[in-house]
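Quarterly update from the structural biology core.
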Amino acid sequence: MRAFGIIAVTIGALMLIGALVMDVSVPAGLGRVNNIGLMAERQNYTIIGGILLIVGILMARKSGSRPPAEADSDTRPCPACAELIKTAATKCRFCGEVVEAVPAPKLKQGWVASIPCRPDEDRSRSEQAVIALGLPVVPMEGFNIAAGPFSTKDEAKAAVKRLSSEHSIYATVDYRDTVSGKFPPLLD
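Predicted structure, tokenized:
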């Protein structure tokens, strides 16, 4: 649909430009006079080009918007009535059916509490501290590890504070992504 909109915008713009540069006069005797037939043709090209341009813009914009609630990642269909409900819901608000809550998906990228480590017992001590706090351990560059990933920077800051206060481990807040190629991929 978006491609048809772009084609319609292009054709409409070309028709408008063509109508603006169209010569509607014809030679007559000592000069030139306007031809009513050519003026009507220019008017038709202008109207059709303008309509195509407007329709094309609307088609291109309409198809660029996201579809309704099915695209929301925090909703799912109710297994009983198929109405959309929140992922964390335990009861359908439409039919009243008790449904099983779906666990949140494991993050592949996000904010982490990054811990610089040496390859010896320093790494294992840091890893045990992260596990003791009940946080997931993720590999970082080299021998470094991290706690996370978290969806917000504040969650990572809280993990840094807990590592520092409860286990005397230095950590920094970093963003661990999946596209830079700097970090090893996380397995499910």
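The first helix runs from residue 2 to 21.
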